[in-house]
Amino acid sequence: MKIGAELVKARKRQELTQQQLSFDLPVSRESLAKYETGTRNLPEDMRQLIAHSLDDVEFYFATWNDAAGEVSIPFFNGDYIDQHPASMVFLVQTETKEALDHLSKVSWVKPIHTRTEQEREEMKQTLFEILDAAASMINLVAVICREYRFSMKKLFKEWRLTLKARRMQQ
Q1: pLDDT digits (tens, 9 = 90+) for 71-81
Q2: CATH architecture of 3-68
C-alpha cells in the first residue's frame, strides 16, 4: 500500500485532523494533504517525524518497511490473522517452539566450509523459523500496545534504556 494511504489511516486511527498533525510537524496542512493523496512524495526525512508524531503501531510497520526494504518485519493484519492478544500469544508460542526445534537440530560445531548444500538449506529454513518467531513477538508487542494504548515509541525508548543499564551492570 502507498505510504500516503497508510498515513491517512494512521491519522484517522489516532483521531487527528490534517491540521492537528501539521502542528506537530514542520509542514503545512496543505503539504500533508498532498502527501496523503500522493500528489507529492513524502520525503524520507519526514517519515520518522510523522511516525513519531502519530505514534501509531501500524504506521511504524509501514514506514519501517519503506525505510528498511526487505529487512523489516511485516504487520500481521491479513484476513486470517486474529489479533486478539490471547491468539497472538498462542502464535508466539507456536512460532517460538518451531524455531527452537529447528535450532536444536543444527550442528553448531561443524565448520561452515564443510557443510553440504542440504545443510545450508536447512540452516536457511532455521533462519526463516527464527524470523517467524521474531515477527510474531514484535506483532504481539504491537497488539498489546494498541490494546492498552501504550505508546510503542515510549515503550521502545524505555526498553533501550533498560538494555543500556543491563550492559553497564555486566
Answers
A1: 778 889 888 89
A2: Orthogonal Bundle (1.10)
